[in-house]
Structures are given as C-alpha cells and as structure tokens.
Amino acid sequence: MGHFCTISGIASLTGGVVDAPDTEPLSPGGERGRVRALPLPPRQPQPPPSTQVRHPHPLRCEVAGWFGLTLNCQFPASLCWPDGLAGGGECYRLGVRTRIPTPITFSSLLLALSLLGVAACKQEPEPNYAELLANLEEDPFDTRLIETAVRAASRAESKGSKNHWAYILGAYANLRAGYSHGSTYKAKNYDESALREARRWAEKTLEICPDKVDCLIPMMRMDLIEWKQESLHSRLLQAYAMDSTNFYVWFYRAEVGMKLKDNASAYTFLDSAESFAKTKRQHRWVLEAKTSLAEREKNLGEAERLYHETIQQNPDDAYAYGNFGSFLLKHERYAEAVEFLEKAVALQPYPLSLKNLAEAKEKVGAK
Q: Which residues are within 8 A (CB) of 173 and not within 5 positions of it... i.e. 6 or more apart?
C-alpha cells in the first residue's frame, strides 16, 4: 500500500483502486476545480490473470507549483487494475518544495515518492524562535540571519501562530533590517518603514502576551528609539514589577539616563544591567554603553581601555576593531587607525570600515 499526502486528505493506492476522500481538486493553473478530462483511448482487452498488465496506459502527471508540489494527474478510464478502475482526473498537492514541469509516469512517480519517503508527508516543524533571536542578537549585522528571522516570523504570523517568541523575533529582525549606522537608540539611524514595521510587531507581541516581561521588551525598545518618554517610563515600571532581575529593565534605564545626560545614573544602571547579563552580547552592550559615556565625558584614556577590553572579549569581531579604528581616526591617530581598520576589513569588509580605512590611509599619505 502507498500513500499520497494531500492538503485535506489522503489519496491512497490500495490494491490498484484510487481512493480520494473529500479532497478539493486543483486545476493545473492552481485554481480550485476539477481537471478537464482528456479523450481516453479505448479499453484494452484483459489478458489472463497470470499475465495481467498492471497499467497498459501509464498514469501521467504533470508536476508544478511554487510552494508545494501539485500533481495534475489523468487517470485513464481504461487503466485496468485487478480490483477495479481508476476514475476521473484530479489534482492533489504534496508538501514537497520543488518544481518539475515535465510529465512523469506512474512508476517513476512511485520511485520518486519512495526516495522522498516520510519527508513528503511530514509537516515542517516550527522553528525555535527564541534560538533564532539569540543568534541574531549575538550577530546583529549578519544579513542572512536577519533575512532568515524575518521570513520565519512572517510565516508564523501568516499561520496565526500564538508563539510569542515569533513576534519578539519579528520586532527585532525587522528593526535590524532597517538599521544603517550609529547609535542603535536613535530613530534617525533607521529606515522609517522599518521603524513602523518593528512597532507593529512590538504591538502584536503585547497582544499575544501582555503579562510577560519578555513581551514588553520590544515595545520598550521602540519607545526608547523613538523617544516616547512617558510611555517608556510606564512600561519600565511595569517590567520592573514583573521581574526586577531582567537585564533589559536596567539596561534601558541606563539608556534613558544617557539620553537625559544623567551620566551618574547611567553608570549605576549599567552596573546593575551587567550583573544580570546572561549572554555575551548583553555584556558587550554594557561595555559599548560605558565606552560612549567615557567619550562623552572626554575621558579618552578610559574609552580606549574599554575599546581594548571589547576587542579582547571579541577577537574575531570586525566591528570591535572597526569601532576602535573609527575612534582613533576621529582623534587624528591615523597610523593606528589604519592598523585596526585593516583588521576589521580582513575579518569583514563592511561599508563604514572601508570608508574609514580609505580616509585614514589618505591622511597618513598626506603627512
């Protein structure tokens, strides 16, 4: 016995009889409706049982479709089987992502399905959205990760998923897709459409799970970037009441302090955030925020120490070298800037590193 997976039922081949239970037919063009039968050859005389021909007129199927495998099959009325006749032409969809526009025979179809095995009948498992989010946070400049995350979240939304991590992922991934450069907490550094889409995902997240601190984080991030101070303050208090040990509760408070130029409060909140940091990226965010504060206070020695600490903790990260190279370029230390920018470019030649390296080399040559 063989089984064909369909959208709404199973068409099975049992003893040569095609059984299609309540399956909505699909036409070759993808529209719902019965396939128009082609003229059929006359019925052939049946040979003796010992030499019975299983399919004198092969079942012919044309395979097409973008997101699934659509079989446009014609079952000839003269197709003789031991237990009966295969009837009328109908189309069924298999969960196989491929496109084969050429006709195939029944035998080759069975061979192909046997090779595909269970994969043709199993539903694709739901992605681990929390893991995708963690990977993207660790490498927020990876365009492939961003695209993968956006697609995964969009599929979850289209299926009506209630998995809150899918929407948290959608909010962050769409935001990263629109980021250009500079501070990640300034709206001017994002594409406007990306900000709108990220806020939509953040609002959807709150609809899915208003009572979880993780679901407040995307909206707090959007309020911080777009500087909706009153709303942000209210949500920070709400998040603190839910979980006072959450990293983002303290880190976003620090960012508020930085926006308000309250450096002392910012340092205090950053120390608290660091004590609750659970990932390498969260520790790095704290380092980068402290570096920004040191530069703001013109404490260049402390800023340089923090840049070196970031590089030491992330020796394979192009942006760690590139950020320090940009710092050196800004302070007219051109030869040193070339050294660190070249390391950045060797690891990953992102646009700003290439631009700054060219400028630093020009300045060195001009001396």
A: 136, 146, 149, 150, 153
